[in-house]
Design goal:
By secondary structure, the chain is α+β, with helices and mostly antiparallel strands. The protein has 21 helices and nine strands. A hairpin with a 2-residue loop joins strand 4 and strand 5.
Length: about 450
Amino acid sequence: MQDPSLLHALAQSLLNGESAVELIVDRCSRTLGRRWRWIRPLALRYAKHFGSQTRPRHREVVKFLENDRGLRRAHTKYPEQFSLDEWWEEPHRMQPIEAAKSWDVPAIESVGDLAKWLGLSPNELRWFADLKALEYKGNNSRLRNYSYRILAKRFGRMRLIEAPKARLKDRQQQILAWILAKIPAHPAAHGFVKKRSIRTSVAPHVGRRVVLRMDLRDFFPTFSGARIQTVFRMLGYPESVADLLGGICANATPRNVWEDVSADGDPIYLSEIRRLYARPHLPQGAPTSPALANICCYRLDCRLAALAKFAGANYTRYADDLAFSGDVEFEKRVERFAAHVASIAHEEGFAVHHRKTRIMRQGVRQRLAGLVTNRRINVLRCDFDRLKATLTNCDRFGPESQNREGRSHFRSYLQGRVSFVEMVNPAKGRRLRAIFERIVWAE
């Protein structure tokens, strides 16, 4: 064997699907120069052991290979083929999976290279990556890399906004621009994707006979730190580099953030939410989180898109909102279809918020991501009327009289809402824009 570590690298290229075993067999055979009889049984055992993992850790693969009796027997019989002793050393070079080879991500092959690329010292790099979960264990808010804000949601649930502080946010934006932005999103993913929007997400569902809307529960904290590190290993980064990149993009919420929170008489939910946020996860508020969530959802999107195609339906996803639509045949099986979607989501590590599942036929208002889709894309009438009334009162009585929530950037807030309506319905947006332009703002 030309490179003793290459068999490990080939085994790490395991892809999800029926072709994974054949891929390993083919590459190992080409590397060894012969299709040895022991390669296929080894590939089958490997695929069964690691299941759907895209790129297991180096030490896990080496341990499996060392404990595999079939491989041991092959090595005893043909010792000249490969050396088991040299597999323990991790190769310090980029080893992307096949699909990632065409993505133009920067080559970073050591911890020192990563620190230099981010403009940090090694100690600062370890501090921001926080692989020892010091932020979770500490109580001093001044030493934290994140600011925290808890928002109340419907049905007694909560959302935690974890906003990175300036220096960490700058590094996350660098990772987003130079690494994560180079990875193409699934065609069904429309949230936080360039040249896609809420409008493109709901467009395939306009005028359909039935629309199915489902919601994934606790979306961002569902993605664990280990899953994030796997993304960077998939891109080819050595494990030491991938772990630090994943650590910079993940966070474990300090315990005392929840001290003053009541769960409205539901201590079980509060216990679950604390446990969920206590492990490293994607923080909602970090610039890297949306892109990483889309990458981690790629397999889910593939499976749901295939299921929808089989059922004659359309499928799109906007962050945690799943949307399906179809005509007569899909309407007949939509309830059973929803059960299949929930099952696939569960297999992929997600939980469906069943209270938010809606089956909307043509006789009712079909609503997706806050937009109406029955005949054409439109904003909700109540939202339009409320915004129009607010703008009119700002024109008549001054904007200060309408800023009841004390927003520090009230003008930008209203301008953003007007721009949103312009994007969805240009005619209505022009009417609101005309009122907005008449408002007199204080200097």
